[in-house]
Design goal:
S16 Ribosomal Protein, Chain: A; 5-stranded mixed β-sheet; about 65% helix; about 15% strand; alpha+beta; about 190 residues
């Protein structure tokens, strides 16, 4: 029975989520599998990969062949490196301590690289938010300036329209005062 390490699709339409499984090569893509080795979620940035390294190495040592995508995932998580190092252990070129030391050094280096990528993505997202906030503030300032300009001519128009009315009212008061004054003087006489 030829065994393949491959992906089994789950999730909903447009949001794929995969299980990394060891399955008979004749089985359907989403059908029966021998062992679930991990998960792969490409919807996150960076992609989320959880993998049973020792179980995957065991299947590779027993002759399982990974698919192209599964091979990339196994390489990314260090399964192929550990399989290679254990091959050197079987041949006598390395000791168990050397294998563990090399594998742990590789894992630490890989985690630093992934950590720097996550930090870079977080920084880029923060910069994008700051840029968007700055652009929004500029737009709001322009809107306020345009509103102030629109209100200023309107206020001037009201003043201009009110000026003749105020002048007429003042003239009316003056004429009323001048007409009342002679009557008052006649009454006093």
């Amino acid at each position: 029975m030829p065994v393949r390490i491959r992906l089994q699709r789950h999730g909903k339409k447009g949001k794929p989520f995969y299980w990394v499984v060891a399955a008979d090569s004749r089985a359907k893509r989403d059908g029966k599998y021998l062992e679930k080795l991990g998960i792969y979620n490409p919807n996150t940035n960076p992609a989320t990969i959880e993998l049973d390294v020792d179980g995957s190495v065991k299947w590779l040592q027993n002759g399982a062949q990974p698919s192209e995508t599964a091979k990339r995932i196994l390489s990314y998580k260090g399964v192929l490196l550990k399989h290679h190092l254990l091959g050197g252990l079987r041949k006598g070129a390395l000791t168990e301590e050397q294998v563990e030391e090399k594998f742990n050094a590789w894992l630490e280096e890989k985690s630093n690289i992934v950590g720097s990528k996550v930090d870079g993505l977080a920084k880029a997202e923060a910069d994008a938010k700051a840029k968007a906030l700055k652009a929004e503030k500029e737009v709001n300032e322009k809107r306020m300036a345009a509103a102030a300009e629109a209100e200023a001519p309107a206020a001037e128009e009201v003043i201009e329209e009110a000026a003749p009315i105020v002048a007429e009212a003042a003239e009316a008061e003056d004429t009323a005062a001048s007409t009342e004054a002679p009557e008052e003087t006649k009454e006093k006489e």
